[in-house]
Amino acid sequence: MPVAWLNAVSGSDIDTAGGKGASLGELRGAGLPVPSAFIVTADTYRTFIDEADIAEDLFEAVDIDSEDSTALAAAEQRARELIMNTEWPDPVRERILDAYGDFGDDPFVAVRSSATAEDLPDASFAGQQETFLNVDREDLLDRIKRCWGSLFTQRAIYYRDEQGFDHEAVDIAVVVQRMVDAEKSGVMFTSHPSTGDSEIVVEGAWGLGEAVVSGSVSPDNYIIDKESGEIEDVTVTTKKTKCVRDAATGETVEKSVDEARRDERVLDGDELDELRRVGRRVEEHYGDPQDVEWAIVDGDVFMLQSRPITTIDESTNGSASKNGDGDGEILVSGLGASPGTVSGRVRSVGKLDHLDAVTDGDVIVAEVTTPDMVPAMKRAAAIVTDEGGMTSHAAIVSRELGVPAVIGAESATATLADDQYVTVDGDRGTVADGAATEAELRDGRSTSTEAGDAGASAGASGAGQASASKPMTATEVKVNVSIPEAAERAAASGADGVGLLRIEHMVLSLGKTPGKYIADHGDRAFRQEIIDGIRTVAEAFYPRPVRARTLDAPTDEFRQLEGGEDEPTEHNPMLGYRGIRRSLDKPAVFELQLEAVRGLHEMGYDNVELMFPLVTDAEDVLRAKSHMQNVGIDPDKRRWGVMIETPASALSIEEIVDAGVDFVSFGTNDLTQYTLAVDRNNSNVADRYDELHPAVQTLLTDVIETCRASDVDTSICGQAASKPAMVQSLVNAGITSLSPNVDAVRDVQHEVKRVEQKLLVETVR
């Protein structure tokens, strides 16, 4: 049958109603408050493509290499054309319109995709297909077809391939549901989404839930004890905008919230108690924690959707133990830069041609690590270096990969021999002779037999850290990501997005300079490498934003790569040919990076934002903006911004804002060095390096003040983002977000919350 009403559908009808439709039918059948709806069944879609004789062409069109972005784009376009250009059979058209007429008052409806592989306990396809709000009778049939077509977006095709779902085996139903013209709406987790603790987490904002789900508004956050109903924590945010139905056009539009209501609490105690009651009922009905979308109209609570929570970490002890000193002799010691303990064979890396010798479970020992060593670092059980500090490349990448690291051990390369068994303790900063003992294994430490699983063990450690209760803050706490392979671990931290994704790490890991790689493999291959790297991170965080920074590598790093003999020799590469100045001087390589981002946008990764490094003034910004337009990125429709890393850019902030940026992000490492004329790696003056110096602080706060006046977001993505004194200073100044490294996310979240609570207390005193 073409149409089924919700009261005829249950949770067992996924093949007919899709995941979303079956869930809604199950909820309505259980007496929960779900707005009335009918479902255009999955059989209708299948009959439509079969009887129109387009099924074979449709599935042939999407039978492609999903890693090929060009093929993906062509597949999406062809699939959509086949569906949209096929006429409706008259009986089906009439049955759908008759069902709409049964609502009785020609209401606006939500037209919502409901694929048969969606909202499943072991696979979350949320956001893969389209939803259309405030649809009237005139547009209903068109929107249903568009939902069908959205089964074949680039992102949906890619995701199904990654998950191993056969395209031909996935059908799609469409839910046509009476619109709830919400006064307030949001999401509710019936158990804590990370820990599974017995507390209900509610997020709410004004207007339609689209603003909360899409992330365009930071909602209020409420944590409620599931059993007692006690409100344990309330975080009230500034909600500048809301999504509402335009009375004249019926379309969903974004409008400003009245000044008086922006900082007003959305939900009162009675509403929270009703949401808790509904949440408990739905969790009890399904027997599993649920992620619920809700809306409130005239005091009545409605459930718009419910699906299982798939993010709860069920591990009991993922992190490596710090107990036991071990019996082996301490051979070298340094900074414990990445936690965990593991044993393995030493593999010394002095030159690039040594990297192939590194096998799974080895302990890399090197003077320093560089971005071109990342492929080998991914295979390693642990990292040990002679040089470096907590902000060095080795330290950052090790923490992102979740492997133990000892940095700045001075004599490691001279003391440790190839094939020697050692135990690396990244907590205490020691490297000991021999493998960990059985006693240490019982205490939870790794042994040499587990060295090959070090990445998995450390990944569990990351998950364990993420499982602690995530504080909800008005100031966003994002995370820096250096390499795509660290994306899942970073996403598990609970960060609000990625404040810095470095494209140069993707490029340098190729082992060739951009010019050499393009000469050997072509433009398309270079562009595809960037697409693949960014897509891995964008997928892990979707729909949370990911800021991808264009190439910013100094000449000394390029010189170590194949093709690097043509790089200029510079006395101080950090002050030389890098950042936006290199990109503007080599526009062909620059535009390939931009084309990669445009391709990701076209694939549906609208969470990818562009960021340009080391700008000096508005002229740099305008020239970069011009290149965006050259490759087809509309700077008025896509979010983009720049790094503020020089005093010149900080002092030119008004002109930079006028150039049209959506955000600016502080790179405090460079900004501090350039402001104080201090090289932090020069031991003669390193003690004078201070991000809290009044001159640096003045630049930061002045930029924040100017940007706030123009509604431009501000962020910080340097190491200083994790320092409590810097957090306090910037949150007090009104910064929009902070982006520390993955190991510091949770500490920064708690520090931000502490500062925000203090500000609230001081406001009411």
Automatic annotation (TrEMBL):
Alphabetical list of InterPro entries matching this protein: ATP_grasp_subdomain_1, PEP-util_enz_mobile_dom, PEP_synth, PEP_util_AS, PEP_util_C, PEP_util_CS, Phosphohistidine_dom_sf, PPDK_AMP/ATP-bd
Biochemical pathway: Carbohydrate biosynthesis; gluconeogenesis
Cofactor: Mg(2+)
Signal peptide: none
Alphabetical UniProt keywords: ATP-binding, Kinase, Magnesium, Metal-binding, Nucleotide-binding, Transferase
GO molecular function: ATP binding; metal ion binding; pyruvate, water dikinase activity
Chain ranges of the PEP-utilising enzyme C-terminal domain: 468-756
Any single Pfam family the record assigns to this protein: PPDK_N
Catalytic activity: pyruvate + ATP + H2O = phosphoenolpyruvate + AMP + phosphate + 2 H(+)
Claim: Metal-binding is one of the keywords in the record: yes
Residues covered by the PEP-utilising enzyme mobile domain: 359-429
SUPFAM superfamilies linked to this entry: Glutathione synthetase ATP-binding domain-like, Phosphoenolpyruvate/pyruvate domain, Phosphohistidine domain
Stretches the record annotates as Disordered: 438-472
Enzyme Commission code(s) on record: 2.7.9.2
Domain of life: Archaea
Low complexity compositional bias, start-end: 451-469
Domain Pyruvate phosphate dikinase AMP/ATP-binding: residue ranges: 15-322
Function as written in the Swiss-Prot or TrEMBL entry: Catalyzes the phosphorylation of pyruvate to phosphoenolpyruvate.
Similarity field: Belongs to the PEP-utilizing enzyme family.
Designated name of the protein: Phosphoenolpyruvate synthase
Protein species of origin: Haloarcula salina
